[in-house]
Amino acid sequence: QVQLVESGGGLVQAGDSLTLTCAVSGSTEGIIASGWYRQAPGKQRELVGRMQSNGRTHYPDFAKGRFTVSRDNANNTMYLQMNSLKPEDTAIYSCNINIRWKDYWGQGTRVTVSS
Q1: How far is CA 22 from CA 15, 60, 84, 102, 114, in A?
Q2: How many CA atoms lie within 13 A of 78 on its CB side?
Q3: Radius of gyration for the chain, computed over Cα atoms and rounded to the nearest angstrom
């Protein structure tokens, strides 16, 4: 059974940096991709950053240059480094891993950016 647990969310000010961590337990054999998503109040969930099994990354425009996804395979941990945070980055951030085309999700961690 694969389980994901996020941590590192909180209240920060605009311009601050924050790193989210996702601890993955269980076998990740057959991983296709991993990444982070977010959902702001009243909005649909959106991709923040994604890393394929070959290490290639993909970011939507709002995240390019500010957000970085990474993965420590030895420790089964995923990271989301967020810089230059803006109030519009306020959301619940969730990590995701796709193993053999099945998605697994964490419970999410709340990030609030004050102006």
Answers
A1: 23, 20, 21, 18, 24
A2: 30
A3: 13
Distance CA 34, CA 5 (A): 14
The mean pLDDT value of the chain amounts to: 96
- For 37-87, the three-class secondary structure string (H helix, E strand, C coil) is EEECCCCCCEEEEEEECCCCEECCCCCCCCEEEEEEHHHCEEEEEECCCCH
Amino acid identity of 80? Answer: L
**Residue type at 92 in one-letter notation:** I
Q: Which residue has the tokens 């796709």?
A: 98
Instruction: Encode pLDDT of 6-56 as tens digits.
Output: 999 999 999 999 999 999 999 889 999 999 999 999 999 999 999 999 999
pLDDT tens track for 11-20: 999 999 999 9
